[in-house]
Every structure is written in C-alpha cells, then in structure tokens.
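Changelog-adjacent note: as of this version, every example in the card shows the full chain rather than a window. The one below runs 540 residues end to end.
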Amino acid sequence: MTAIKPAPSAPIAVAARAHGDDFPHRAGQARIRLAGLLMLATLLFYSPWMLMSLNERYPWLAWPFAVANVFSIMYTVLVVSNAWSRSVPVRRRVGQGDEPHVGVIVTTCGEPVPMILRSVISVLEQDWPADRMAVVVSDDGHDPELAAAVAELPVVYHAPPPRFAPGRDGVAKAGNLNSALALLDRQHPDLAYIETRDADDEVGSHAFLRETVGQLLADDHLAFVQTIKEAQVSAGDPFNNRETMFFRGQMLARNAANAVFPCGSGLVWRRSALREIGDFPTWNLVEDVQSGVEALRRGWRGLYLPIVGAVGQHCPEDIPSFYKQRGTWAIDTVRLMVWGGKQGLGLRQRLHFTEMLLFYLNAFTLLVYVPSVAFSLLGWTPLDASDAAYAEHLLPLVVITEIWLLTLNHPFNDRRRRQRRPVAALWRQRIMVAGLAPIYMKAAAQAVLSGPNRKPVYQVTRKMTDPRRWHWLLTLPQTGVVVLTVAFAIYAVSAGTLPGFWPMAATLYWAGLNIFLLSGFVTRGWYGVQRSRRGASSTP
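Full-length structure tokens:
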C-alpha cells in the first residue's frame, strides 16, 4: 500500500512564516478617530432632518424607513464607539529551555488525509521541543487511512465515541475536543496549556507556541490567546475569506475592551480556565465564541496576538459551502447573544458583543431600504424636502460614510503592500455583506425562533470546492432584487415618475449601489465555472 503524502504547504503559509512575527506596537488610531468623529457629526446633522422630513402622504413607507434608519444609525454609532480604542500587546516569547508541556488537539471529521497531514506536520515542525508537545489527532470521521497515515508520526491518533453515543460530551466539534481533552488529562495530567487546531489549518508562524504561551506565562489571569487566521484564497479573494477587517482591525479593538473571543484555531487555552468553564461548551452550534464568553464572564481575560497562527489550506469558494459557513456563524452568534448567559460581562464587553448581534440584524433593514428605493423611482419618496435640503444632508452622509468605511477597513500590519487595493477590498467586503443579507435574515430568525433549548443541527463545512456548477437558484433572491430595481428604473424613466433632481440623485445612487453590490454577489454563483471548463477542455 502506497503511503499517503502530505499536501504541499499553502503559498500564503510559506510567505507568512518567511515574513516572521514582527508587528508595530501602535495601532495608529488617529485616522480612525478623526473619521469616526466626522461620521458622528454627520449623523448628528442628518438624523433630526430625516425625522422631521418624513413624508406624511405616505406613512406606510415613511415610518418603516425611519425605523430602519434609526436602527442603522444606532449600529453605526456603536461601531464608531467600539473602534475608538485599539490595543496591541507587548511580545513575550518563551525562551529556549523554558518551554512548558503543551497539549495540541487537531480535530478532524472527513477532511482529505493529505490536508490533515500537512497541518499535523506543520505543528511538529515549529520551533518547540518535540518532547514538550503532546499532539492528538482526534478523528470524528474514524478514518482508517488517517490512522495509518499518522502512525509513523510522534502523535496519538484518537477516535472519539460516535456522535450520539452515551457519555460523549457534545455532538459536534465540541464533543470531539472534549473527548481529546479527557485523553490528554489521563495521559498527561501536568499539561497547563492546550492548543486547538482545525484539520485544514497549518501553522503560520514557526514561533507560534513561543509567542502565545509566552503571553499565558506572563499573565496568570489570561485564559486564551487567539492569533490571526489567514487563508489560501483564489486571486482577489472573491469571497472575502481572509476577513482582514476582522482579524487586522476589529480584534485589536476587542483587545482594548477585553472582548476578544476564540476563533477555533490558531488558539492556545490555559487548561485551568477551560476546567473552570466546564471544558468546551456544547450548548451552541460551535464552541469557540461561547467558550470565550464563558471565560470572560468569570473574570478571565482573553488576548488577540497579531501574528499568523493558522492558515486555512482551503476556504469555501462556492455558494453552497459559503452559505453554510456564514449561516452557521450567524445562527451561532445570534443564538448566543439572544439566549446565552452574559452575566458578569462589563459594559464595554457587552457593547462589543452587541455589535456582533446588530451586524446580523442590520440585514433586515434591506427589507425596507430596497422597497424605498423602488417606490422612490415611482415618485413615492419616504422623505419630503426641498432639493437644497436633500443635497445639504444626504451628500455629506454619502461622502463621510465612504471615508469612514475606507479608514476602518485599513488592515493592521498587512505586509502585502503591492497587492493591497483598499478600495477593491472594501468593495468586496460590501458585496459579501449585501449578498449574504438573505442568509443572515434566515439565520437570525432561526436562532430566535428555535429558543434556548432547541439547537439547530450543525454540519461540517466541506473542504473541497465544486466549481463546475452555476448555483443560480441559490442566488435567486439577489438576482430578483437586481432585476426588479432595474425594471422599476426603466419604468420610471419611460413614465416620467422620477422625483426632483436631488431626490432623484439620492434614489439613483442607492439604487445603483444595490444593483452593483448584489450583481457582484450574483456573479459568485458561477465563480470558477469557466475556469473549470477551460481545464476540462485542455485535458487529453
């Protein structure tokens, strides 16, 4: 039988390890604070005018528009407030010869064996003594090929009990982690630190354990250290899988408020903190965010360290897998924020977690904004004001919003200067947010209506992309909005129902923005199809 070889290291992982772990010790807040103040001033100028200019002739349109506007304004104010402060930690590396014994859990469930081997080997090859690591490959797929493939490596292969077996603590990934954790407790009761790593995430820093464990050794109140999760993506990152705005922006703001949460991989826990929260929680779909909240509300601290700790070898770049992943995140977050325990969290921590909830709930405002644009094209506007008033209040709002978003989206310590295109990156982020609105609405409704005692079923995201299909049915809602908006615009021009110049300019701006954003998302429905066909046609 031919031995299975590990997959080659992802190019982005090679680059991350070559660049090293240096990062600036300041977050550069001046621009963000200035843009935030401009945003707040603009909203303060716009909001009273908007409320006083509601069109009394169409209250069925004006009042929902006002409610949606107030919600969006509150959400924006919260984002500006949370982004006001950022904190960059001081580096604290473990010295040579001072390495404590660390347990490493690599969780798997049906991923390709070469991919798993690459992740495991990257763990073993980092700068940490082999005799100070206890690596467990915990396989929920019970794959004999994987068991045979890792038999020659200095790791322990572990097959947790079946998902619904009596005595298993958790059905999904949390159950896998808890089973492996129990194994480590039995075999290595002295372990003080536990790293968790997804099967498809190879190590992105040779000094990953030195940097993260060093933070834990320096602060006895630190429960976990989370690092940057990078991703191997196609050119241009069409599905925004790198999430630079989150990992290289928002997490620094969470550092300042002690509101960092684990992201499942590229993460090291203090064993005593895990023990205090009852190990990995099983109440929600996935364990990562809830485990962090449980630690924070008990007085522990979390830390975000801006080094590349994990690099995903695969990311969802087809609509079904992308919907599944982002829908799971949405359900998990909304369910935790609505039904989960938050007692013990401070005000700033609550504000940061509330921002996560409002991010998903903000999708519902499109149910108001899109019809408002369509009816405005017919001359039924939610606001009734002069052309000068429209120009005076809406033009600054549009310009300052774009400046604020562009400033906020500037990634911290992203060394890809030649490849960085800030406007394109922001546009891609906005395409994903707009296009995922139906998924977020469905997920939020499901999370709320299912209640605290009925957990939706979790499924592992596929680690293989199928680019050979046009997933037109899954993007039908977005396509429908684009087609209807264009149809309304054509009718408005032909029938002469467009409002005055400035109301028309504002309407056409929002209509055009929706059309281009949603059209950009619709094109993701056939992403890779042409490339796949070219590859097939060239195959002998």
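Structural remarks: The chain is about 50% helix and 10% strand.
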